[in-house]
Amino acid sequence: MRIVKLSPQSLAFPSPEGALRDPNGLLAIGGDLTAPRLLAAYERGIFPWFSPGEAILWWSPDPRAVLFPAQYHISRSLKRFLNHNPFRITLNHDFAAVIAACADRPHEGTWIGPEVQRAYLHLHRLGFAHSVEVWQGKALVGGMYGVAQGALFCGESMFSRTTNASKCALLAFCRHFAAYGGELIDCQVLNAHTATLGAREIPRRQFLQQLSNLQRKPLAPECWAAQVLPPQQAEPPSPTN
Q1: Is the peptide bond before 63 cis (omega within 30 degrees of 0)?
Q2: Fold of domain 4-61
Q3: What residues does each domain of the chain span?
Q4: CATH topology of domain 65-228
Q5: What's the pLDDT tens digit per position in 109-158?
Q6: 188: left (phi over 0), alpha (psi -120 to 50) or beta
Q7: What is the spatial distance between Cα 141 and Cα 132, in angstroms, rounded to a whole number?
Q8: Are the C-beta atoms of 154 and 186 separated by less than 8 Å?
Q9: What are the tens digits of pLDDT across the range 82-91?
Q10: pTM for the complete prediction?
Q11: How many CB atoms lie within 10 A of CB 188?
């Protein structure tokens, strides 16, 4: 196995099955972050992840972390919090502010440099990337963003400036996404935070099969219109007749 260097003249990617095992999922290097290349990557289950100022690295890990929206785990403490939820949650109201906040991690470091922010903001303007915003009063206190692939959503990053803000963002998105026919959220690599929310690992081959199937299930355009999402409760509201 070897890392493939991408050609600037081609949008072709190598098969994810050829990715390295160590580091897990590293597949290719180089290329750029133009919209056509990013979309070509996501269509194949590949995503960029690299340090600002360094060469672009492309990944497709095995196993893959995913979250089925109906399996979002609401802890007892979050259930109590939702009884007095202080947040207002919106969709696609301020993508630029969300990705900038996801990048603002002075004590951790971030891969979301200015080049990445510009690239995903362009994807957003083209209608492929979407954000969820969590507001407390007029302050943006949490959110998440990612890229839509039909009935699958590729989650990229989330942030929280106050307790439970990112958890409420993901909960609101899961319910909204599922209501429009969304079936799966890609979490890329499992970590302690996403595991507590219900994410789990599946084999890469299974993920790629799911991706191929769900890409062919486009959601109604209304799913991605800028809007206020319903107030979150511990249990989703019953549908009205």
Answers
A1: yes
A2: Alpha-Beta Plaits (3.30.70)
A3: 4-61, 65-228
A4: Aminopeptidase (3.40.630)
A5: 678 999 999 999 999 999 999 999 999 999 999 999 999 999 999 999 99
A6: left
A7: 11
A8: yes
A9: 999 999 999 9
A10: 0.94
A11: 21
